[in-house]
Every structure is written in structure tokens, then in C-alpha cells.
């Protein structure tokens, strides 16, 4: 269990109060066994049948856990399987993770005198979750909003996707991009206005895994080819196996197929997201580390006057929420319509609310800059008249 401080509205008194909420640590699943790492570049040819036979009982239990967890984190499943999910439970969750729109003033007040830095996940945050991951387009209005955000605050997109792929969706050269769960970080191609002279490619901590990832990609394509709807995505430094278009009855079988390949590569680990299993190197690098790295490269490593805001919808975003909570700086905002165990402080229901929040943030910043400008001008006028 971990603790986090959030500001919640007190419905009775109408005032806000700070409380400490106990939150269970969200456990991500790791398939990394304690074996020597496989040597990159050695591809073992093995039949699908044999691979499946290799699965031991523990692996079977782990696979069931992945599938159960994936079912539990699927919003449609929660709705259909838990029609009586009590209003009390929902209200209690909303009380502990209030809407970032309702708490807008409190959030901006907390950021006063500090530099806001925006971190945005892509899928399910800026774009809706769709069946075909290749068609997860963001709307023009969302793009225009993110462009305005980047005009006022350093802004980074942090995604599990390959960096080039996420860039092809967002198409804004002024942003920082952290693809492959932060394992592929690049600064603005126009050059950063916040950090002069920043290098184009900032960081790729898992480059030596590239040949292995490529091998596993091919092996996954092979073992999953007979499962209708299964889609394997190569995100360069990590891989995703999408379950979105697979009949739920086939989820266990597909997870087993993925597990069978992973057994051969103990230096890769598996994490579970929204209708997706993700495979990545066991190196200690995640979206939280990417957030810290970006703050450092922007020159805010040991600053107290920085206010990072991270918005995301996925289990993998929890690493970033946790970092913010531990640093005691800024806030995490979870995008979710349903209660979830999270380290985020606030919530937004869907991408349309994310856009509304970002627009308010831009309007607030514009207004406060105008106010500052007026005050400065008045002071100068007063000086002149003395
Ligand atoms: Mg997401």
C-alpha cells in the first residue's frame, strides 16, 4: 500500500481539504525468470505445438492472471459483468480521484510560480481506443489543442507505440516524443525553445535489444497467425499483442501463445494493458523513468519550481503517476470512466474531457500572462512618473 495526497471537495462544507489516501501498489506482471539472458541474434526455430508443450504449470497460472487482469481492465467488461457495481463504490473512487475539470482552480493554484510541464499518453488519452490500432487517429481539434499547449508549456507525448508511429498520428514537430514506453526519446525536431542546443535523439537505453525484439516479433507473428483478430505490433524497442479484435473466448489461447514465445527469452518481460499484452526488455526503464529523464534534460532535475502534469489511461502510465507522487511534484490524471486502482490524483473520463482540460489550461495561462504583462506595464509607468 502506498499513500498519496490529493485535494478533494468536501460536499457538506463546500471547502476543499487535503487527505491522504491509501492505494494498493499496482502490480504489473513480469514474466522474466531468473535465467541467463538469451543472446541477441540467436533465433531458435521451434514448432508452435512444442512451444505450447513447454509451458509449465506456473506459466499457466500466470497466463490466467494476465487474462483475468485484462478482462478486469476492459471498460466494456466492467459494465456488462458488474451491472451492480455500487454507486457508493463509484462515488468513493470519484471522491478520492476527483475530476481534473472540477478541481481545475485547485490544480492551477498549486502550480503558481512553477513551470508546468505536460506529459501526454496517446492511445485512450488523445485518441479514442479503436479496434484497429493503425487507425487510432486523433481529431484535428485535439491536434490544434495540443499545439496550443506546447506553445505555453514544454510538452511530451509518452507512448508504448513506436516513436515514428506516434509521430505519424500527432504530427507536431514542436513536441518531445518518448516512444516504446520511454525507451526511444527525441526532442522537438524544430529544436527546443525551452532547452537551447538539445540534441535531436536524446536517449535510447535499449538499443542492444533491437535484434532480439525483431526475432520475437517474427516468432509472435508465426504463433498467433491462426488466431482470428490477433495483431502483433512492432514498436521498435517493444512489442504489443492486441486482443481488441479477438473473441474473448480465445484470449487464454492467445495469451498462452504469447507466453510460449516469451519462455524462450527470459531477458524480456511482459506487461498487460487495456486489451493488450506488451513485451519489452527487462531493463529498469518505463514511462516514469522517461518522465524523470525528460525533466532532467529540460533542466528541472533538482528544481522545486517545476509542476509536471501527466495524463494517461493505461496501467503502464502508473509508473509515471508513481514518480510524481514520490517526487511530491505536480499531479497524475487518470483517463477512465470506471474506478481503477491508481497512483493518479485526479481523473478525466475520456479524450473529450482531456481536450476540455487542456483548453482550459491554455486559456488560464493566456489570461495570467496578460495579467502579468499589465502589472509590469503599470509598474514601469509608475517608475517613469517618479
Ligand atoms: Mg493509453
Provide a short characterization of the protein structure.
It is an enzyme of class 3 (hydrolase). The chain has helices spanning 48-53, 57-72, 75-81, 87-96, 104-110, 140-152, 163-170, 210-224, 251-262, 287-297, 318-327, 351-385; strands at residues 2-9, 16-23, 115-120, 155-158, 176-179, 184-186, 201-203, 231-234, 239-242, 268-273, 276-281, 306-312, 331-335, 346-348.
In round numbers, the mean pLDDT is 82
Count of alpha/pi helices: 12
Instruction: Tell the overall outline.
Output: globular
The arrangement of helices and strands along the chain is EEHHHHHEHEHEEEHEEHEEHEHEEH
> Main beta sheet, described?
8 strands, mixed
Ranges where pLDDT stays below 50 over 5 or more residues in a row are: 1-55, 78-83
CATH architecture of the largest domain: 3-Layer(aba) Sandwich
Class based on secondary structure composition and strand pairing: alpha/beta
Q: Please tell me how large the radius of gyration is.
A: 22 Å
Beta content: 15-25%
> Which strand order does the major sheet show?
7-6-5-4-3-12-13-14
- CATH class of the largest domain, anyone? Alpha Beta
Bound molecules: magnesium ion
Q: What's the β-strand tally?
A: 14
Q: Helicity level, as a percent range?
A: 25-40%
N- to C-terminal separation?
61 Å
Q: Which fold name fills CATH's third level, the topology of the largest domain?
A: Rossmann fold
Look at the structure and name the CATH superfamily of the largest domain: HAD superfamily/HAD-like
The tally of structural domains comes to 2
Amino acid at each position: 500500500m502506498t499513500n498519496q495526497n490529493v485535494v478533494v471537495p468536501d460536499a457538506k462544507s463546500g471547502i476543499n481539504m487535503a487527505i491522504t489516501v491509501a492505494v494498493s501498489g499496482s502490480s504489473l506482471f513480469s514474466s522474466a525468470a531468473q535465467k541467463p539472458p538469451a543472446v541477441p541474434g540467436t533465433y531458435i526455430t521451434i514448432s508452435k505445438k512444442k512451444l505450447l508443450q513447454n509451458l509449465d504449470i506456473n506459466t499457466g497460472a500466470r497466463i490466467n492472471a494476465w487474462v483475468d487482469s485484462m478482462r478486469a481492465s476492459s471498460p466494456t467488461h466492467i459494465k456488462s459483468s458488474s451491472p451492480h457495481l455500487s454507486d457508493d463504490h463509484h462515488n468513493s473512487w470519484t471522491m478520492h480521484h476527483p475530476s481534473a475539470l472540477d478541481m481545475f482552480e485547485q490544480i492551477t493554484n498549486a502550480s503558481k510560480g512553477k513551470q508546468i510541464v505536460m506529459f501526454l499518453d496517446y492511445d485512450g488519452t488523445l485518441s479514442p481506443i479503436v479496434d484497429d490500432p493503425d487507425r487510432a487517429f486523433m481529431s484535428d481539434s485535439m491536434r490544434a489543442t495540443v499545439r496550443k499547449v506546447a506553445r505555453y508549456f514544454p510538452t511530451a507525448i509518452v507512448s508504448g507505440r513506436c516513436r515514428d508511429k506516434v509521430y505519424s498520428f500527432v504530427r507536431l514537430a514542436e513536441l518531445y516524443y518518448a516512444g516504446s514506453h520511454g525507451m526511444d526519446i527525441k526532442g522537438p525536431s524544430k529544436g527546443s525553445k525551452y532547452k537551447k542546443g538539445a540534441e535531436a535523439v536524446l536517449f535510447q537505453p535499449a538499443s542492444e535489444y533491437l535484434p532480439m525484439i525483431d526475432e520475437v516479433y517474427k516468432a509472435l507473428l508465426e504463433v498467433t497467425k491462426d488466431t482470428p483478430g490477433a495483431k502483433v505490433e512492432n514498436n521498435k524497442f517493444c512489442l504489443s499483442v492486441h486482443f481488441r479484435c479477438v473473441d474473448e473466448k480465445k484470449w487464454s489461447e492467445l495469451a498462452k501463445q504469447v507466453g510460449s514465445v516469451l519462455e524462450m527469452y527470459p531477458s524480456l518481460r511482459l506487461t498487460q494493458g487495456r486489451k493488450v499484452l506488451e513485451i519489452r526488455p527487462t531493463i529498469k526503464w518505463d514511462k516514469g523513468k522517461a518522465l524523470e529523464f525528460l525533466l532532467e534534460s529540460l533542466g528541472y532535475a533538482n528544481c522545486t519550481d517545476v509542476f509536471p502534469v501527466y495524463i494517461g489511461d493505461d496501467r503502464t502510465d502508473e509508473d509515471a503517476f508513481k514518480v510524481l507522487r514520490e517526487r511530491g511534484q505536480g499531479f497524475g490524471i487518470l483517463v477512465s470512466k470506471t474506478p481503477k486502482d491508481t497512483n493518479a490524483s485526479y481523473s478525466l473520463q475520456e479524450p473529450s474531457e482531456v481536450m476540455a482540460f487542456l483548453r482550459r489550461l491554455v486559456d488560464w495561462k493566456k489570461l495570467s500572462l496578460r495579467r502579468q504583462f499589465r502589472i509590469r506595464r503599470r509598474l514601469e509607468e509608475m517608475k517613469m512618473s517618479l
